[in-house]
Design a protein that fits this description.
Elements lengths: L3 E5 L4 H12 L3 E6 L2 H15 L4 E4 L5 H14 L5 E4 L15 H29 L2 E5 L2 H5 L5 H21 L5 E7 L4 H9 L1 H9 L9 H13 L10 E4 L3 E4 L1
Parallel strand pairs: 1-2, 1-4, 2-3, 4-5, 5-6, 6-7
Antiparallel strand pairs: 7-8
Helix pairs in contact: 1-9, 3-4, 4-6, 7-8
């Protein structure tokens, strides 16, 4: 029976790369996002490319009832879930801390931290049954204190803490929980590179391999590894991926 992966924010730059990596490895894909139009385009393009059926569900991860609906649909359609990937996140990146409003801060916490919490909470029974895995996404913004990333960093560091507790609690159920902190060349990052060449030059200088990660070849393949039996000994780890990788406690 084919394994099932759920990817939130699947049609974005990183999400798309991960989705393609899992489709190439014969997974059934469940993709969520807040835009019905973007999900429809995503499904049409990947259905043609991989000749497979992709289950797309419009959902806002910060709304608990939306998340319950996603998990119920997965149960009804497949009866199993092998890997949950919490990729979706929205924030007012670029605002200095004192410029943030409560609404700005809530945007990051709801779309990132709360969404990750809700999806993990409601996916737990299916993951326990499959002895599956969770891959959450954090960021160097929190690890290294990036300027103008306060709400985003707070959400991502919350996700790291939540993931560590879940790895401890769910270890006896053989559910693995890991975190990836990527710096990936996406269309948004390419735009940032053009608009802020000095900041890009400084960032790339600090990366040993001198390049950003690729959404599919690097992040997708790393996600596949963490979801596989080859990684059954890895849980509770934060893996940084900035053109290279390393385990960080």
């Amino acid at each position: 029976m084919k394994k099932v992966v759920l990817i939130t924010g699947a049609y974005g730059g990183i999400g798309l790369g991960i989705s393609e990596a899992f489709l190439k490895n014969d997974y059934n894909l469940v993709a969520t996002g807040r835009s019905a139009d973007k999900l429809a385009h995503f499904k049409e393009e990947l259905d043609k490319k991989y000749h497979t059926n992709i289950l797309t569900i419009v959902a806002d991860g910060g709304i608990e009832s939306d998340v319950r609906n996603v998990i119920e649909k997965i149960q009804n359609e497949f009866g199993r879930l092998d890997c949950l990937i919490n990729n979706a996140q929205t924030s007012k990146s670029g605002l200095m801390l004192v410029e943030h409003t409560k609404e700005d801060f809530d945007l990051a916490i709801n779309s990132g931290l709360y969404a990750t919490f809700f999806y993990m909470k409601y996916a737990y029974p299916l993951l326990k049954a499959s002895q599956g895995s969770v891959i959450n996404f954090a960021s160097g913004a929190g690890l290294f204190g990036k300027v103008a990333q306060s709400s985003y960093a707070a959400s991502k560091e919350g996700i790291r803490g939540l993931s560590r507790v879940a790895a401890t609690e769910w270890g006896p159920d053989n559910i693995r929980v890991n975190v990836i902190c990527p710096l990936v060349m996406t269309p948004k990052l390419a735009t940032w590179k053009e608009e802020y060449p000095d900041a890009y030059a400084k960032t790339i200088k600090d990366i040993p391999l001198g390049r950003f990660a690729d959404p599919e070849e690097d992040i997708g393949e790393l996600s596949l590894f963490l979801a596989s039996d080859k990684a059954k000994y890895i849980t509770g780890e934060t893996i940084t991926m900035q053109g290279g990788s390393g385990l960080r406690p």
